[in-house]
Amino acid sequence: MWTIIDSPVGQLRLVERHGSITAIDFHPFTYADGRPRGDRDDTHPLLVECARQLAEYFRGERTDFDLPLAPAGTEFQQRVWKELLSVGYGRTASYGQIAGRLGLTGHGARAVGLANGRNPIPIVIPCHRVVGANGSLTGYAGGVERKQLLLDLECDSLF
User: Fold this and answer.
1) Which one of 39, 70, 87, 115 is most buried, by most CB atoms within 10 A?
2) Domain annotation for the chain: domains and CATH numbers
3) Which residues, 6+ apart, have CB-to-CB distance to 118 below 8 Å?
4) Do 76 and 114 touch, CB atoms closer than 8 A?
5) Which residues of the chain have pLDDT under 50?
6) What are the backbone angles phi and psi of residue 99, rounded to the nearest 5°?
7) How far is Cα 127 from Cα 116, in angstroms, rounded to an integer?
8) Euclidean distance between CA atoms 147 and 89, whole angstroms
9) Which of 50, 127, 149, 151 is catalytic?
């Protein structure tokens, strides 16, 4: 099941499967990626709850999400995405720091960057909080402008 909501970063498609959120997609939506979505259901309880929590986040009222998540990915991607959940609201971590936390060396930061870019549940799994070693806003699947907006939203709500 899926639904579409409006947000400060544009329309978002929320996707649920088997009782868990499996994707949050930025507009323009891609349909050729092969992920199962099912039918649109704007009243599905989990999608309604996800939309509510996202609205609270965008209003600066929510710093953590409480949703069942089931992102599809490799074992390595799963490890990276789990580590992203430890990067707190209003904070950032570099790709190298995430790699270090996972015990990776060498090209670990690059591998983390690739996994970060494949995160199917952005915002809730906060891939926007990962930055370059010098604090620069390197790539973001939703676009660097969205990444900046999300980081600004979190920093502004802290004060």
Assistant:
1) 115
2) 2-58 (no CATH), 75-157 (1.10.10.10)
3) 73, 77, 141
4) no
5) 159
6) -60, -45
7) 6
8) 14
9) 127
